[in-house]
Amino acid sequence: MAAIGRRLRDEFPTTRFNFTQPIIDSVTEDTNGTSANLAIEFSGSESETLLDLARRTVDLIRTVPGAQDVNIEQEGPQPQLIITPDRQLCARHNVKIEDVTAVINVSLGGQSIGSVYEGERRFDIAVKVDREVINSPLAVGRLPVQNMDGSPVPLSQVARIDLVDGQTIIAREGNRRRITVRCDIVGRDQGGFVREAQQRFDAVIRPDLPPGYRVAWLGMFENLDRARRHFSLLIPIPAALILTLLMITFRSFKSAILVVAGIPFACIGALIALYLRDMHINVSTGVGFCALFGIAIMDGVLMVRGINVLREAGEDLKQAILDGAQQRLRPILMTAIVAIFGLLPASLATGLGSDVQRPLATVIVWGLFSAMILTLFVLPVLYYLYPPNITPSENTTLIEN
Question: What is the CATH number of domain 78-166?
Answer without folding.
Answer: 3.30.2090.10
